[in-house]
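Reopening this one. Same input as before:
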Amino acid sequence: MAKKTEKKQGEIEAYQHEADKRKNTVPCELASYDTAKPKQKKFKTVESIYSRVRDILEAARGGAYRAVNFAMVQAYWHIGRVIVEEEQKGKAKAGYGEYMIKELSERLTNEFGKGFTISNIKYFSFISRLRLATQCVANLG
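Same output, byte for byte:
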């Protein structure tokens, strides 16, 4: 029984000794800024930190791009829905639909820049119709 107690006591002392050593040191990344360290070690640590920071920024940008793309697809669908609703009110007479799309294209391009060509606005309308058709088919099943 005494041997087990001595062994446990030795393990506890060794653990405390390691904990004390860790308490009196600075983290690896910060230790590299100590002037006593070789310059190559500093460079490797800066490279490591730079690489980690770069990964964080790239992940954040990727998430932002995906969020913006999702928001724009939703906006395009809503634009298409507004056009389809207007057409379904019976105002889509021979020329009115083309005139409306051409007018929207010009005004949106003037105010918001590229991306609002006549063909794109027709695609917005198509996306809306496609989604409505998909919902109708889903409701049948």
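So the earlier flakiness isn't reproducible anymore. For the record, The chain has five helices and no strands.
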